[in-house]
Design goal:
The complex is a heterodimer of chains A (271) and B (121). Chain A has 271 residues and is α+β, with helices and mostly antiparallel strands. Chain A is 28% helix and 30% strand. In chain A, the strands form 4 sheets. In chain A, strands 1, 4, 11, 12 and 13 form a 5-stranded mixed β-sheet that branches. The longest helix of chain A is centred in the middle third of the chain and has 20 residues. Helices cover 64% and strands 0% of the residues of chain B. Chain B contains 4 helices and no strands. In chain B, helix 1 packs antiparallel against helix 2 and helix 2 packs across helix 3. The longest helix of chain B has 29 residues. In chain B, 13% of the residues are buried.
């Protein structure tokens, strides 16, 4: 038995398969960061940190005058989202039902997927993660009310990347709101979304964990998501009515070349 | 050169696929070299040459193992199967049969095997 204690759950093999497939489907749909950055791992649950190659001066051991330096590492952060399933719904799988109500799995998978993406895009200070949308010294780009202006904004972001010597191919990630706005907009009868598609050779990604938009290089080597334990479902407890489970992962994220990403801030919320 | 054996247009392949291609091509070359060394060691009657070839062959095994570990770290499906199949006791087919019966629980780390989603995976 491992740390997930799945064998203790009163869940048949068939029901586990359905629960896992629900989670897998939601994660693959919702996760955006993993469609855009390099992936390292999974290195296992027992992996605690990754090296950054950097060190800082430290005090020498007491009674010694030797120079001391302390290696700087990025600790892996554990994210966990608990959920509960009704045992009556788990049981219907073994009776052949094809429509068990596993909505809590979907909700939990979406929550943890968005949490990972929030860390990648907007950072997670407690975990030492700086996100791709961190503020820049230069004048920030911002989505406006006029969706027809989105292609110009994205072209400006692409020019800034090229000015920095950042090669393509380039990808664009859009928040749920920006993506919806773009899909619905047309200019002279031509979908604005298609204008954007013509600007970039890489993917156009729907990113519900992102605020605004992000244009970034896909040349590789610029952004690294390091995963210890990849998304897994574990067991917490059960009673006669329900089984309490959780979905969990451990990871960290490092923007090796932050300049290879150009954030576009969301449009201001109405006051 | 590994790049000469691409079966699709390089422009449509991601950096990750190209890196895996480099690793897998190199593993194939290492394994082929081990096979050739085995045969030459068996064929030679010069003890000193056999010792050198044996040393070289075993170095290729180290290289192949390092590359397999790299693949494990960069390919979640490989990692799952390696975890299930390697360093077990008993008949190999038994391990495969257990995995076949319970695909949902097959990943020995219990993960959902999401891994990288780049390249439309």
């Amino acid at each position: 038995m491992d740390h997930l204690f799945r064998e203790l759950a009163p869940i048949s093999t068939a029901a586990w398969a359905v629960i896992e497939e629900e989670a897998r489907r939601t994660l693959k749909t919702t996760l955006a960061g993993r469609k855009l950055v390099d992936f390292r791992g999974p290195l296992g649950w027992d992996t605690s940190c990754v090296g950054t190659g950097r060190s800082e001066t430290a005090a020498p051991p007491p009674g010694s005058d030797a120079d001391a330096r302390l290696r700087k590492v990025l600790p892996l952060v554990e994210l966990r989202v608990p959920f509960a399933l009704r045992r009556s719904e788990i049981d219907v799988v073994d009776r052949g039902a094809e429509d068990p109500d596993f909505e809590p799995v979907v909700t939990a998978a979406r929550k943890i997927a968005i949490a990972e993406d929030r860390a990648i895009f907007h950072g997670h200070p407690d975990a030492g993660i700086r996100g791709l949308c961190q503020p820049r010294a230069e004048v920030a780009l911002r989505l406006g009310d006029d969706v027809a202006g989105y292609p110009t904004l994205i072209a400006t972001a692409l020019n800034r990347l090229r000015d920095r010597g950042v090669d393509g191919p380039y990808a664009v990630a859009l928040s749920e709101r920006a993506y919806t706005d773009l899909i619905e907009a047309t200019q002279n009868g031509y979908p604005v979304l298609e204008h954007v598609r013509r600007l970039v050779s890489g993917p156009l990604i729907w990113a519900p964990g992102l605020d605004g938009a992000l244009v970034l290089s896909q040349r590789g080597g610029d952004f690294a998501l390091t995963v210890g334990q990849d998304f897994s479902i574990g067991y917490l407890a059960h009673d006669a009515e329900q089984v309490r489970l959780y979905i969990e992962e451990s990871f960290t994220f490092l923007a090796i070349s932050p300049d290879a990403a150009m954030p576009i801030a969301p449009k201001p919320s109405p006051a | 050169m590994a790049g000469e054996t691409l079966h699709e247009d390089r422009a449509v392949l991601t950096k990750e696929i190209l890196d895996r291609h480099r690793a897998l091509s190199t593993i194939m070359e290492e394994l082929e070299a081990i096979d050739w060394y085995d045969q030459r060691i068996a064929a030679s009657d010069n003890a000193e040459l056999r010792a050198v070839l044996t040393h070289n062959r075993d170095e290729e095994k180290e290289h192949a193992s390092m590359l397999l570990e790299w693949v494990r770290r960069h390919d979640p499906a490989f990692a799952r199967h390696m975890s299930a199949q390697l360093f077990n006791q008993g008949a190999i087919r038994e391990t495969a049969a257990i995995e076949g019966e319970a695909p949902a629980a097959a990943a020995s780390d219990g993960s959902l095997g999401i891994g990288s989603l780049r390249g439309g995976k």
